[in-house]
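re: ur question from the group chat, yeah i did fold both. here u go
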Amino acid sequence: MTELSGEQAAAVTEASTAFVLSAGAGSGKTRVLTERYAVAVEAGGRSAFDSTLAITFTEKAAGELWERVRSRVEAAGGSALSDGIESAWISTIHSMCSRFLRRHALEIGIDPQFSVGSTVELGMIRKRVFDAVVRSELDSLTIANSDVLFRAFGLSGLFLTVSFIAEQVRAMGLRPSDIITCDAVDTSEIRMLLDCLEALCDEYDSLSETQTILGNIAALGGLVQAGRLWLGGSAPIGELAIVACGLKQNRRGSQDVKDIAEQALAHAERLALLAAQYAVKPYEQALVELVQRFSDGYRNERREAGLLDFEDLQGLVIELFELRPDIAVRYAEQFSLVMVDEFQDTNALQMRLIDSLAPNGIVAVGDERQSIYRFRHADVDILRRRTQTASVRHTLQTNYRSHPDLVRFFNGIFGGEPFWPGGFLSLAPGRSDEAGEETTPYRGIPRVSALLVDAAECGENKDADEAALLAEHIRELVDGGVPPGDIAILLRAMTAADLFAGALRDVGVEVFVSSGGTYFDRPEVLDLEMLLRLASNTNDTEALAHVLAGPLTSVSENTLGRLRLSAGKGALWISCRQAHRLPIEEADAAGISRLVEVVEALREGRAGAGLSEMIHEACERLEYDLTLFSRGFEGARAWANVLKLARVAGEFESSSAGGVQAFLDYLELKREIEGRESLAAFAVEGVDAVRIMSIHAAKGLEFPVTVVANLGRAPGRNVASAVLSTSGGEAFLGMKLPAGALVGSDSTETLGHMQAVRAEQEAASAEEKRLFYVACTRACEVLVLCGRTRFDREAESTGAVGWLREAVGFGAPDSIVAGDVAVGYSTVRILTPVPRDCGPVGLIRPALLPEAARVARVASAVAAQDSTSLDCGTRGDYRTTTART
């Protein structure tokens, strides 16, 4: 056994195979999993590879664990023992399920050669099924009140609502019929509220009569009358809801009038919620029935197409075990040890499967403070419940990743308000304070610093001002000897990533954005889409103008003007084919000639060549690859995105028929269905540049200098009209009373909707705190926090910058001051830099995006036949002298 700490050794040698291992950040849990697996193999030989099951959350984590186990076993027993790892059960839960299903496809009634559908394929099926449900319902109206839902949500909005609820319910291991709604309204509370309102009328009567009081009494009387009529069965509940929502109470006059008016409004608000909830019941039921029909249709369509999705992989294995309990028993007997890593990220459906494989218990490894995947339906309560009921528990509290000063900061900030006082797994430093201090570039740098930027001092683009200030701070770190490659900027959302990257370039620091969901917005992707559009239709003037003006051809605006004038009202493409006859620069003529050859080759195709290969050839002939590589790290990143587009083209051709236009249609569907497609994977080893990535992408990684920025970003508050709350393991549907449900009414808040929204917002806020914890604990040597806040106001109750202010004692207005602040047994350096009026960021050393704006302007002018808008002395800064070898 390799050298382990005491707490690690205790977890490895634990005799029980059913316990919870709570593993703090940087505590070496992967090492424990590796060692426990290796010990099982050493004790049981090669057969232990078949009897030991290890489930991880990502393919990357599974690969890392597999390689560690192989190396560890080989070191202990040689290749004769380690060769058995080829059959080892070390995988993600989806890969494990796929392995089960291929073994038992016939028993469950599916094709053994099944495939998991792509996001686009499955998205197309979902849309097709929803359209069929809508058409059927519009023809027959068999679901009462469905017509109101169609009008209130709109078809696109209703599709998003229905499909999302269906997906959430499946991930919980439930059916649409398991959805619950707010309990039936108790009429006794409505009677009580009406009695209270009548009593307030009497209180008004006891005051001196004024016009204000008479008006308020009349309004209250109308509301009480509407309530009594409904209770007596003489009026619909909708009328009561409308009157209660519209109650007006004038608060002019004495304090007594103000107090009575406030009480009346509070009672009316509660009455409106109850009445609207009573009225919304049939519409909630209609929505649930639509979800049921959609779910049934989606399941049937997938089966007919021979496609599965990731939830199918899990659900079908559960179905297999229920239909054939003998198979379930066989696997339960086979696996004597089941270990589940990142247990905090499991969901209810996955737990049903895991429990059936290990009826006697599992080794659950996780940290509830690192549960950050609610959007993938992870349920942190599963780990909490497992921990509370576990008879055997171990903890890994020693952090070997971070400097002791950082560990003390983590304990100080996250062990108190507003985070987890009394509920935080306190960490112990596993490193020495002095180890390596003499040679480290971090000597003399504050281990934790916070750049608090006064939002009131920022200009119109507050993100840009914050980015500029942070870039100056990072420049100081680099000038002090910190390698740029040691620094990572982590963002909650990648929407501002290009601003932060541009600000760093402005101060001369190399940077690249290593993750994010902006793929289809990238200029290099647009360049190639325009090239393909031109190949599909040479009369597409917009596409041709873009290709000519951009880096694929990079002709001068003077040449573009001549081409436009030569074409007159004719086709610009014909002018390009005859460009050699025009008085234009030789380099431009050569570039246009190459473009014509490339486009014609794409249009004609080449025997045996696929679209993916032809995209590669087009880039090479137009020297697009050299153009991008000449731009440094960002150019390399751009080329990775080009290669990804070529791979997507190859995937399209392997499963679909059609040429260039069919592929363009496929890309449009992919953009619509998948939304924010991630950038291409990009290797960063050996690159001395600051990395910018999302917090989610940084999970499981570590960086010498971690910068957590944009902490003042306001959390999203886009509240849908129908919300499914999954808190507590129940699927609770809350829905506003739809617009049009009552005559002349807009959508109306209901009691159930308010409860569901509150539960979801509380869960989202709790996850935001966990995200902040995950981001901070990526730091090995130095942690920099940066965010905007209004210094003259109280700390924000939601959002990381407000929590940070409260934690360091700056919660009150005008309390923020620069200097050192004690947080627990650590110190935080507070900096309050003031934004300078330095103009837009990212202009001193422009990346690809600013130039893309010029291309769009020029292309628009050419397409609009407006030669006067062209700068005839300008060309795109794309030409490179790099020779192709």
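okk and heres the other one u asked abt
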Amino acid sequence: MDEQGYLRQLVTRGALERYGPPHDERVKGAWTQIEHELEVIGGLGFAGYFLVVWDIAQVCRRLDIYCQGRGSAANSAVCYALGVTNVDAVDLGLLFERFLSPARDGPPDIDIDIESGRREEVIQYVYEQYGRRHAAQVANVITYRPRSAVRDVGKAFGFTPEQVDGWAAGIDRVGRGAAAAEAVGAAAGGDGEGIPPLVAELAAEVLDRPRHLGIHSAGMVLCDRPVIEVCPVEWGRMPGRSVLQWDKDDCAAIGLVKFDLLGLGMLEALHRMVDLVREFHGDVVDLAQLPQEDAVYDLLSRADTVGVFQVESRAQMGTLPRVQPRCFYDLAIEVALIRPGPIQGHAVNPYIRRRRGEEEVTYLHPLLEPILKRTLGVPLFQEQLMEMAVAVAGFTAAEADELRQAMAAKRSAARMEKMRARLYAGMAEKGVEDEVADQIFGALAAFANFGFPESHSVSFAYLVYASSFIKLHYPAAFTAGLLNSQPMGFWSPQSLVADARRHGVTVRRPHVNCSEVGASLEAPSPDDGGRGPGGRGRGGAVPDPVLRLGLASVRSVGETTAERIVAGRPWSGGEDLVRRAGVTRAQLETLAAAGALDAEEHATTASRRRLLWAAGAAAQGTPDRLPGIVVGVEAPLLPEPTLYDGVGDDLWALGLAPEQTAMHLARERLEAMGVVMASELPGCTDGDRVSVAGVVTHRQHPETAHGAVFVNLEDETGHVNVVFSRGAWARWKPVARHSPVLLIRGRLQLGQGTVTLTAERVEALAVGTSVPASRDFR
């Protein structure tokens, strides 16, 4: 049996399971579409490519590794039948030619998302299965960005590392091109304070130029001959990795077949969540068979999405209450809506106004209504561009994909003119002429640069719904899964834990005799105020769990030491940990500061500080000394620590404050100053001038915002989205850019379920202790 025959056999087997037999297909036209796709795949000679992708997906299932195909592969019924994707392209009417057509150059593009913590297993499987000599990873050309350019140019001029690091730290994280050069120029200064003008000038010149080679985040190449015969190969710095000296564009130009194996943190987090739910609640959550529930869409509509995949950013949380998603396809639109392209193409607000009934739904031509009806007359997806060309100009699907490529960012003038003539001729045949034809061409040309693949949105929408579902029904497991998958996502562990507490989850400190390596779930005690039977789990018979922080989250402990502690418990004290688990003095000190060594469950700041004092003495109880001879473990009478000291100890040892935060402690003083809590803002009146205060979690300066800067504040009750106009940011930047806690007065904007504060006055706020670092300009 040849490759095409084996592929047909696998597809037929999968299609019978997914669609039923041809004479009784569950989705009309499925088998016809599959036959068409198999003919195209066979004609182009890509059967082997699909078999390799199927093999990778199969090994993921065999090893219980979460994965899903995405990108334009979701436009293919063959990929759906093979189990590579979970998107039914036939049922959703997705265009196969966006994925593969005879007119396209090169093989199709199939991205496979793999849970990030286990992607290396899949990469090593590919090396083992197909041979080290025939497989290699693609290189990535790392180019100069503003900070790296300033560092390297400054070093070349002989400035000290401390000087150049200081200059680099003062540069905002921005995109490429003009914005990057502007950021470097803004940091320059001839007064001895900023970057020397010559350094800034030369740093701007090297922006976007190659700096060094790295390993591509996903791409692997397979060859029918030793790769070294095609391109030089070198060992990567990561063990077991061999890397081409070409990047993805070089590989595409020479015709090498590339497979993208992407690590996706949310898949890892979802796997951990599902395992925790099964272990604690006894519920089996099948992400492919989740029921559609109004309550999940209610959660999304009120933007209760901290930690939820793809819709947790400030912009998404500001859009969700306005869009009010009520079905799965609404989520696909939401994923595509908040992207640089739709924002630059002025598609966001027209769609939202039409969605809310504030603007009439219109179409440039009646022929476009069946195509744009699902997005209310506003083109959002690349597939719609292709369908529009088919409808109004009589293009074939292959010609429509050629038009999409011609209109893309790297457009060729000659190719574009040829397609323009063909488009106008086709529209004339359909009776679409003059001004309407010009409007349609203009809409297509503007849309081509920013259209988002519908297949991509649908693939991500599944993960949006799955993560929202688990957050609604199992909030403790949801938070634990996210904490155990860090670093990932938009929010810091502090914000995730604070959000869990606001959802009624009790959070316990790590403890050497109770904690696992990572965050885990425990049964509540009477002191935790557990709900008892009838908790939020799907069955309702298991009480809501308590979230126990993991030992690996303690500073300097790490997974290896945490595993030894878990395996060796129970522990009698610090000396026992040193003797049997090999815990170092530094680790013992952080465990003590985190409350992980207290004999009692409810550690106090005073008890933690006494154990911290004793850690130095206990660290002397190494295995080469007789037990029981350590002295000095009893702490003298120490000064009584304050609540602020306790918060500082938590942040030093854990990176978060699991109980009270600095904003809790400052609330009485803030109330006396008339500062409004985040939870109280929806009850205010639109246009009110109010004062808010909070820890800065994010500062963002998107290129599409015309100079505006967005700052997110978090207090003990929630979040406040603050907008700085270009002028306000210029005035208050010295304070707002670097102060970790801000007190801001401004005008409140309430409407369509969203709350925004326009900043008018800003000052730094001292809270008496440290706070988590913000995630700026990402």
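fwiw on the second one: DSSP finds 32 helices and 16 strands in the chain. Residues 530-534 have pLDDT under 50 and may be disordered. idk if thats what u expected
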